[in-house]
Amino acid sequence: MMKHYKSLKCDEQIYKMKLSSDESVLATLCGRHTLILWNTTDFRELGRFTFPKLVRDFAFAPDLLKIAVITADDQYGTRMASTSTLQIYDMVSQVLEAEHALLDVRSVVFCHHPI
After folding, report:
1. For the segment 48-67, what is each residue's pLDDT rounded down to a tens digit?
2. How many C-alpha atoms does 41 have within 13 Å on its Cβ side?
3. Which fold has domain 14-102?
């Protein structure tokens, strides 16, 4: 039996996709500024984050309560920005909980640290 997959509704090219560790949420980087969260059961949109700066990378927290995003002022056709910003959002409320300016960071990952 062939499986049928729904299309993700994204108005721009999808640059990056990441699946949560429990495979319940898929995050897509649509264009270079919009991060969309999808429920993998029915591919219903769970949330959308739009950033004024280009998104370089993003990562789910192991417990799915937070999402970290690295943004920068990269411009097409020029050298990459030498600074970037780490932002951490609550996944449910989509509220920015922390922000920190960094040097040239290109990726982010959450590490699980048992207490």
Report:
1. 999 999 999 999 998 999 99
2. 3
3. Thrombin, subunit H (2.40.10)
